Amino acid sequence: MLTLADLFIVLLFASAAAWLWRGHGIRERALALVRRHCEKMDVLLLDDNVALRRLSLLRDAHGRRRLARVYGFEFTVTGEQRHVGSISMFGQHLGQIELDAHPFSASAEDTAKPANVVHLNDWRQRPPPPSY
User: Fold this and answer.
1) For 54-69, how does the pLDDT look when each residue is reduced to its tens digit (9 = 90+)?
2) Nearest CA to 88 among 44, 49, 52?
3) Is 115 helix (H, G, I), strand (E, B) or coil?
4) Strand partners, 111
5) Residue 53 in 3-state DSSP?
6) How many CB atoms lie within 10 A of CB 71?
């Protein structure tokens, strides 16, 4: 015969298993979001993995404190150095993704001379404006 204490223990284990199962789904969603963000930022996600760092009370976009899962991951830009990043998840919803300071490679369009930039040598060679 099941006693109330036995029923409580079974419900406690079932709740813990359900929480772990849901946490695995949230981890998979966080990994997909990190992959997409790394592609957008033109960095390489290392080990193709995110790891739970902590559970924490963080503020969401509305300023309310909510329980968040904070996952950590590593990425590289040059292939030589590992950099650390983190992603916070409020349930299935993204909180924020942070990447540590890292070098970035300038593309050809970034090195082109923009039209609104005046270089110092060009400025010095201009004649002074007329005074009235």
Assistant:
1) 999 999 888 899 999 9
2) 52
3) coil
4) none
5) strand
6) 23
